[in-house]
Amino acid sequence: MIEKYRYHLWLHAIIFMWGFTGILGKLIHLDALIIVWYRVVIAASFLALYFIWNKKSFSFPRKHAWKVILVGILVAGHWMTFYYSIQLSTASLGILCLSTTTLHVTWLEPIVMKRKFSWVEFLFGLLVIFGIYFVAHNFGEGERKALYFGLFSALLAACFSVFNGRLAKDVESAQITLYELLSGIVFITIVLGASGKLTSDMLKMTLSDGLWLLFLGVACTSFAFLMTVEIVKKLGAFTVSLSINLEPVYTIILAIFILNEHKLLNVNFYIGSLIIILVVIANGFYKKWQQHTLQKTTITENGIQ
């Protein structure tokens, strides 16, 4: 029992760190592309050291290589648009947009996983759109641009989440993550080179930026991933996925106290935020009910046979 509570504490510590990643988009005074480039380089390096320390194999099934490269590009694209959204507006808006990822998964999974379309989940999606209307209907052009990039970031996050779900059936999760990060490094380096940002001046940073980047790459990315794998084994996927919905709550609270964003956001933003967060949590409970119903049906059918 004590061990279970310990893993619950670890889970919320991880979610808190993920919530802090949005704040770092404001605290690190570098271009969004540069932040993401450093993040993937640091995270991949730490994960490679983890492989060496634990004598894990670096070998990888070649038949899945192109899929991993594609998902790695999606991950990089998600992070780039996420931090760009934050730098255009606020950390609160960026993370709120990201909370719609779960709802994107509800229409992506029927396509990729070939499962039945759910009209209840479609209704949840409409409620999220209503929440976004509350958040955005008084926005200026700059905030609307941030909103579009944030929502696109959430779509990319949903894509790599669903595709990773399929890959994880054939390849170990740690290996998938390492090679996706390496693919991301190559992709972002190409983007930086093409945009003329891969220069010594652009890569320069202060000591504060460097320390925050280490925290972002090691604690919030590599360590958080490895720890989450262990937490899922102990607490189950549903508990973890439902708890992760608290991430925007943590970010908004942190943004109020650290960045004073409550001075920049109006009541409509918080009404819309509450609608979206409640819908996402309700969707989690609906999935749990679906899973429970399916298990009961399977047991009944097996009993009849």
Question: What's the number of helices?
Answer: 13
Strand coverage percent:
under 5%
Rg over CA atoms: 20 Å
Give the SSE string: HHHHHHHHHHHHH
Q: Please, how many domains?
A: 1
- Spans with pLDDT under 50 lasting ≥5 residues? 299-305
- In total, how many beta strands? 0
Most strands sheet: none
Percentage of helical residues? over 70%
Structural class: mainly alpha
- Cα shape: globular
For the terminal residues, how far apart are their CA atoms?
A: 38 Å
On the 0 to 100 scale, the average pLDDT is 83
Jot down its keywords.
disordered C terminus; globular; 305 residues; 82% helix; 13 helices; mainly alpha
Overall description:
The chain has 305 residues and is mainly α. The protein has one domain (2-304). Helix content is 82%, strand content 0%. The chain has 13 helices and no strands. It has helices at 2-27, 32-53, 65-88, 91-98, 101-112, 119-136, 141-167, 173-194, 200-203, 207-235, 237-244, 247-258, 267-304. α10 (207-235) packs antiparallel against α11. It is globular and about 45 Å long. The model is unreliable at 299-305 (pLDDT under 50).
Give the SSE layout.
Blueprint: H1 2-27, H2 32-53, H3 65-88, H4 91-98, H5 101-112, H6 119-136, H7 141-167, H8 173-194, H9 200-203, H10 207-235, H11 237-244, H12 247-258, H13 267-304
Helix pairs in contact: 1-4, 1-10, 1-12, 2-3, 2-8, 2-10, 3-4, 3-7, 3-8, 4-7, 4-12, 5-6, 5-7, 6-13, 10-11
